[in-house]
Amino acid sequence: MCVVVGVVVQLFVTASIMHGVHFHDTTARVLNVFAFFTIQSNILVGVTSLWLAARPDASAPVFRVARLMGLVGIVVTGIVYHVALRAYLELDSWGLVADHLLHTVVPILAIVGWLLYGPRRLTSSAVASATVLYPVAWVTFTMIRGAAIHWYPYPFIDVDRLGYLKVAANCVWVALLVFGIAAGATAVDRRLAVGPAPPETDA
Fold first, then answer.
1. Cα dihedral 34, 38, 39, 42 sign
2. CA separation, residue 19 to residues 15, 23, 25, 94 (Å)
3. In this structure, is residue 32 part of a structural domain?
4. 104-133 per-position pLDDT tens digit
5. Which of 120, 123, 158, 195 is found 20 to 30 A from 96 (Cα to Cα)?
6. Burial of 61 (0-12, 13-18, 19+ CB in 10 A)
7. Which residue segment(s) compose the domain that 18 sits in?
8. 203 within a domain of the structure (yes/no)
9. What is the distance between the alpha carbons of residues 92 and 16, in angstroms, rounded to a whole number?
């Protein structure tokens, strides 16, 4: 529910912005919201949580990877935002509501929910490795798109302002963060796991 409210509010806030934006067409601004890692990681958490609610015994490989991708993505979202991005924003009203939901509330709920309810034994070294494919794909897409339209969703990957060398260094730090979180989640899952491992696939 927090994901849905946060994303919907953000869409309306973005649609209402009239000045100082790169995209002057309302439709383009709204669609561009989905280019942000924050939005994508929130949606991934929401989808996998809904999937788990509908199928508590879900354990197919695609779910295992998606579940950890959502967890790692939302943790990265919370950390990077509060450490490196918050100072760049001046928000109020509904924009502040969406900001708190997407960058603080959902990350906290996702972490707490995973720690308390799992499900356990869905992670492994292979799953953790596959999790990295998502941020790599996002960075690749963002770099290609940014070079074409001269717009980047976050200051730390703005090639036009920082140059490729600095952006590459920033991406390395984020990659290390992703690797660390994925490996850490796998280790924690093993410690918290109880009972028999779930089957590898489900119908």
1. positive
2. 11, 10, 11, 17
3. yes
4. 999 999 999 999 887 888 888 888 888 888
5. 158
6. middle
7. 2-192
8. no
9. 13
